[in-house]
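[Q] Does anyone have a clean structure-token version of this?
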Amino acid sequence: MSTDNIDKIYYVRAGKFRRYPKDGWRQIYDFKTFALNFRDIFLVIIGIIQSFYILRKIKPDILFSRGGYVSVPVCLGAKLAKINYITHDSDMVPSLANRIVGGWAIANFISGPKEYYKYAPDKMILTGIPIDEKFKPLSAVQNKEYRKELQLDSKEKLLLVVGGGLGAKDLNSAVIRASEDLFEDIRDLRIIIISGNISIDHLKSEVDRYISVKYRKFVRFIEYTKELYKYSGVADLIITRAGATSLAEFSAQHKPLIVIPSSFLASGHQIKNAEVLRTKKAIEYIKDTDLKDNIDILKNKILELIKDPKKLKELSDNIASVNNFDSVELVSSKIIQLANLKGNKNK
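[A] Here you go.
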């Protein structure tokens, strides 16, 4: 992360509440989980005290919170220091952190319909999700330039798989297992998987196991890239999880998507993110629980879309209409407006 435009960084202690839905009630009896959660109560208390003194010292006009667990002690410290703050939710399900501190915020920025959130109606402001300005539709010239840079022929069809920061091992493996039949049916298909570095060795062994030698060269792994916008920009079809920021980025580029949300996250926010787009016919949706038992679901959906330019265009048009406003400008202008309007009691 670049810190070129950051004046100063402060560090405070914070704790998280560990929840593992796949373990169900059994996690209650897991000593390690209980011990870590109990310890982190004290880390949060320490973080509140640290935040209180830091905020009293620097006296910001306003504080903006994106809702990670570190925001809990900071926002509670701000409340004690009488510093106004704003929360922002990228997901359709408010984060646990924002559910804890959101009630004391002077405004709650949201990214979807108000009925998905339980904040005070008069404090909710629809802002969407601020994203990098590089995520935008490509011109024909840009498409050609990026494809040349990424070593892709102009006639090749690119299937891009983006599983998130850790790579989504199961999703990537499902694509690999379906690839042999895909290459047999679509001879100019190329697959690029943004894999993360945790499971790449496993995935390479999956390639050796499920894809014949003549097709292996058509699958490429990238552990991490700062130029995702180039790969997604030239992709004909993208398979992704349902992280809110990724969906916003691909939406801004008007990309056809197959979305496979993770069902194992505590709040179920990825499922809700995907369902909102699904109701608008802006994505193709596959449950990861269905995919686990039947790879053909994914294979057939890819074939259906890649072979149907009209359907790809329909998905592209539909997703382009979702939150098609400048979230960066809206969020920044609202922060400035609220900072000027409210003022802080300690100034």
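[Q] Thanks! Anything notable?
[A] Residues 140-320 form a domain with the Rossmann fold fold (CATH 3.40.50.2000).
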